[in-house]
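Input record (one chain):
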Amino acid sequence: MNPDTDRFWRLISLCHTVMSEMKNNKLEYMAQSPDEAALVGAARNFGYVFKSRTPDSIMIEVMGVEETYELKCILDFNNYRKRMSVLVKKDGKVTLYCKGADTMIFERISKSSAAELEAITQSHLDKFANDGLRTLCLAYKEVDVDYFEDWSRRYEQASILMKDRQETLNNLIAANIKIWVLTGDKQETAINIGYSCRLLTVDLKEVFVVDGKTLEDVRKQLEAIIVQLNEPSTSNARDGRVTSVHFQEPDKNSDLLVKKTTYGSCSTMLDGGDLQGYGLVINGQSLTFALEPQLSKLLFTVGCACRAVICCRVTPLQKALVVELVKNNRDAVTLAIGDGANDVSMIKTAHIGVGVSGQEGMQAVLASDFSIAQFRYLEKLLLVHGRWSYLRMAKFLQYFFYKNFAFTTVYDPLFIAFYNLFFTSLPVLGVGIFDQDVDEKYSLK
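The corresponding structure, as predicted from the sequence alone:
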């Protein structure tokens, strides 16, 4: 086979965010867009089959031979970059695969070695465009390992920086708001972000990692966490260590069997202050099984028992399902905040959707109930404007019942009209618009 053809289909089968699932002994793909599903499906038809992925690896089958690549980094598509890239490692070599708009790819290819190829490709693009077809350009590069390690370190540091994020999260947590993080980042990055913004702290007794690869593995890990949470001895350790939980068969007379009858409510765990010193990290593959009907309430119970929950490598659909899980199992108001197209389904599912405008496009903003320019403004939206709005609406509705009296007229209708206007309508509107029980400074405390 022509080496360029091999690289072409290999890139198609590796450079994507598609999730695979076996249904009725048939491999099915779940993609963020129909385009990605079509491309991966085409590669499968030509013998380059995407088999499965984990947070750290991706497996393909090339002409019947399975190949596993170490997944180093995914740079998602957005309206600013207009391309998607993945960095994979195999046999000690790091390769960058990229697909995107022709203008963005042409700007970055080597001019010295690809002048003729660029001219041929441009003629093909013009022909496809004249036929009314959509076009996509592909490129790859072998990356020096030392250069990649240096870039990866700087990229990870930059990806976890956000102005006033730590302070905002701390104030929201102090206001008794439970925070779950749903991200597409890999597990290590998600945990580092959790520690950098103080969602995960060293004073946590333990941070559980659920990474089972089958439904039964996930069940055992979640049940093992329940057993560990019920053990009084766990209160002795407070080192915030990250632990991968391994299941040990519980005693049939243990408290776990009692807990199984009350998965629908986690109030018992939430009321116990000692149980709030735990964190939970679960990856997208394990979350797929944990969201199944037979495990969803168990996941919800464990999540409620932990002070911090981080779901990494999750798809847009999984984000929405996690929000729906909380909505359906707890009498609470849910708020989802996101900045990209991947967050739209989650924002629409929550009671309140907040979109952050920025370089990720306007999809999240257009689907949201409220729009903010930066994440740090969420604190003021909830603790200041949210408080004022709630109190204003409560007082407005209380007085609303007394407006527009309509009984047999004893007085002249003009007097009644003046009474309704000046003594009932206008004062109520004034309270509803301008009332502040305390000023902005004290609302933030």
